[in-house]
Design a protein that fits this description.
The protein has three helices and 20 strands. Strand 18 and strand 19 form a beta hairpin. The radius of gyration is 36 Å and the shape is elongated.
Length: 314
């Protein structure tokens, strides 16, 4: 039989079932949304370099170029061969009209045209790829070469970044399940104040080292200079369809072997307090959030002094 609580020895609070919402504060780091390593397809000596580290550029701007003399001559050579091969096809067609050439001769001539045309297209492509044009407006992060230096195919000459900024912030599995792409969040950056960003990337898997999910918050475009690696405070408000009882952490008596929270409470229709257990939705430094349903009745919960409550025989 339950012993009554001693009068004036405890505090109570009426807790109603409410939609769960909370705000999570995390510290993240500023970073470029997109970086790219730019390189040449063909080997050659660097003849043009129009940008240096830290400099900005516009989309379509010529950033660097190889000495294209050799590639230009190769393209011109294949073009001349292609022109001659087309003439040979016309000549063989005339000879066939005079019964002086065979279908086999024509087939070989047409094959030669296609072979040289393919080689010409490759040479033309290599000539185009001997120049690096900016794929977007951005900034040079690193320059890995010098004028006159021999470039190898695939060797990164420049590392660039698009001038779109994100804050990378780590969230837990439960938190990541509640955010949505395009969701607005508040970001506080030193010397910039509070600005509004949006969730732009939600990872599918957690980091192997800490089991956290690195989420990206896209910031609005700005002309102000920012620094990659600078710390930023991110405030994310969560709202969903879950109903909970939000109790002060002091109301939590214990957690049983099944992970349920034990509290001392009574329903509005009851006159006696009893120990009750609820599934825990979430726990933080200030509150314990217990699972509830939309139509659950309010609870009168002992928030202070539940130690004065005991089961019979204790």
């Amino acid at each position: 039989m339950t012993q009554p609580l001693l009068a004036q020895s405890y505090d109570t609070e009426v807790i109603k079932a409410e939609l769960y919402n909370s705000t999570v504060q995390r510290t993240g780091k500023l970073d470029y949304r997109r970086t790219l390593s730019l390189s040449f397809k063909s080997a050659g000596y660097l003849a043009v370099l129009n940008v240096d580290e830290g400099e900005t550029f516009e989309q379509g701007q010529l950033l660097a170029s190889l000495n294209i003399t050799e590639l230009q001559e190769e393209k011109n050579s294949y073009y001349a061969q292609l022109t001659q091969a087309k003439r040979d096809v016309k000549r063989i067609n005339r000879l066939m009209d005079e019964k002086l050439a065979s279908e086999r001769d024509l087939d070989m001539a047409m094959t030669e045209v296609e072979t040289i045309r393919a080689a010409y297209q490759v040479a033309y492509y290599n000539l185009e790829q001997a120049q690096i044009f900016a794929p977007f407006s951005g900034v040079v992060l690193a320059r890995n070469t010098e004028l006159g230096e021999l470039q190898s195919p695939g060797q990164a000459a420049l590392q660039v970044a698009k001038l779109d900024w994100v804050v990378k912030v780590a969230l837990t599995g439960q938190e990541i399940s509640q955010v949505q792409l395009g969701q607005s969040v508040k970001v506080s950056i030193r010397q910039r104040g509070i600005i509004e960003g949006v969730i732009s990337k939600i990872p599918a898997i957690a980091n192997s080292e800490d089991n956290l999910f690195t989420t990206e918050v896209l910031l609005p475009k700005t002309n102000n200079r920012m620094i990659a690696g600078q710390l930023a405070s991110v405030s994310i408000a969560f709202e969903n369809d879950y109903f909970i009882y939000r109790l002060p952490i002091a109301a939590l008596v214990a957690v049983d072997d099944d992970g349920k929270a034990i509290i001392v409470a009574k329903s509005m229709a009851s006159t006696e307090f009893t120990q009750q257990s609820f599934e825990v939705f979430e726990l933080d430094n200030d509150y314990v959030y217990l699972r509830a349903n939309r139509n659950d009745e309010p609870l009168t919960v002992v928030t202070q002094g539940w130690q004065n409550y005991s089961l019979g025989g204790q």
